[in-house]
Amino acid sequence: MPRPPATSPETASGPMVAGAGRVTGVAGVGALIRPGVLTAVLPVELVAAAVAATGRGERRRCKLPATAVVYFVICLCLFAGADTLAPPGYRPVMSSLMRGVRAAGRYRLPVSSAFTKARQRLGPAPMRWLFEQTRGPIANPGSPGAFALRLRLVSWDGALFDVADTPSHHQQFPAGTGVGDPQIRVLTLTECATHAVIGRGLRRRRD
Questions:
Q1: Distance (Å, rounded) from C-alpha 21 to C-alpha 196?
Q2: Which residue, among 188, 189, 192, has the nearest Cα to 143 in the 3D structure?
Q3: What is the pTM of this model?
Q4: Axis crossing angle, helix 112-122 with helix 90-97, rounded to the nearest 10
Q5: Where along the chain do its domains lie?
Q6: What would the pLDDT profile of 152-187 be if each residue is shown by its tens digit?
């Protein structure tokens, strides 16, 4: 499966590839997820291939097809990095994603429970497949700050993330103090010039 179109260093250093840390406020994130922006980075054909390859396609037509849920989950991650007091609900995120379609009167938002069930149906497999297909360096030899002494410049980065508050997650990913939400440690190898992720590792906080 071919990777998405190559991204220039100027574009790659922007919020979509470098991460949501450069985006401030819900309004900033909403501008990123307007129709056409996400699909420029992850084409619909690639997302559909992820769904098909992992066997997560739906058998009947529904308001939340698996391809749409993939984009929805990505948007949830973008909103989680915005300057908000608490993560927004499912419906506000989907409303921002589908703003153009809703304005034309072609889409009505499902109830919140439908999003929960859609995420459960999708599972992690399509997201893992997409990561493996799109990860890797994207800078070329002429990219500013990408190489030194003919060696590609990369760096390690790590962060802690809260995961769903479930009994199995508390057992697998206990919080550092033993109380609070379960947490997972993510370590990434990143290309310095573009912030493109080359590889990643997932560990418990205490490891």
A1: 14
A2: 192
A3: 0.73
A4: 80
A5: 9-134, 147-204
A6: 999 999 988 888 888 888 888 887 666 678 888 899
